[in-house]
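Appendix B. One record, verbatim.
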Amino acid sequence: MRDLIKASNLTRRAFAARIGLDESKLSKSLSGTRRFSSVDLARIAETCDVTVDWLLTGDTPAVSMAARASGGSARSALEAATRFSATRADLATLGYSQQWRTPPSRRVANRYADEGRDLAHWATEVCGESGPPATTKDLSSLVEAVFGADVAVVDLDSDFDGLAVSSANVKLIVLATSPLPSRQRFTLAHELGHLLAGDDQDIHLDRDVFDRAQTRDPGEARANAFASAFLMPEAALRSAVQAGITEAAFASLACDLVVSPSALAYRLLHLRFIDAGTCDRYKTITAAKAAHMAGRGDEFARQVAASSTTRLPGLLVQDAYAAYEAGKTTLRPYANLLGVNVDVLRDSIEANTVVDGAS
């Protein structure tokens, strides 16, 4: 702490004033006769441009180190993850930990893909009354509500689909905005599969979840199998094909599940509900064409607009405000998440109004 004060180029008295303490209280805290409060730590972190988690542990999260070490599109993706991860880790130190739902010990399957499907079966069951993921349009909110992961959608470079961050205090999924709703949805399920399987502790980057080369990676094979089974459960598909799977019925089913026709075709082929020739024919249908065939063009347009829009991690925003209301931290973490000026936000809250973007 003394090194931080020295690096701030402030006198001890000025530093104390900056964090809202008198000099004697700061001296007592530095000597160990007084404990820094959570608000003290939050203000010190803001003043010194560090995190509360770093003040308490001295550890730099792996995602932060990766962000500094990476360049190009990877850097922008990791910087987004760093921002959310740091806030989540700080909130955890204040008693606002994620309620992450840990899956039970899974059976050791002969193939990683089988493990992914087993995990998807469990995940579908725990969704329970929240609704089956296959027909839930707002999958991000479902993942947050049921599994406890933070889900954000941000503008990333075009060669990134998303990433997952996993640590003791952070379970985070960051998705890229996309004009392809089904691709973004599959990426979300894919990253959830990585988190539930415990793959790549710290961070997992996915440039292209549909890259065929990924099938050679056991973790990717498991995550893809999870996503396919989670979004296109066998029971639902079996029921849908009982009356026959004409091209029109296929297009309507792809719209119902908000999955790409190619992903649906491969899933039906894997389950032996269609033959290879039918798969080859159906997989060439685009999502836009499927929507047109099903008479659901307006619905598809709304989905494109939604998947092209950024989204803040709802649970994280909720916890940041709760910590502020409880007097455990300052308003700045909440303001930073919303992307608004902290003074404007404070005035707005005090006036009991809502500023644009803070609703």
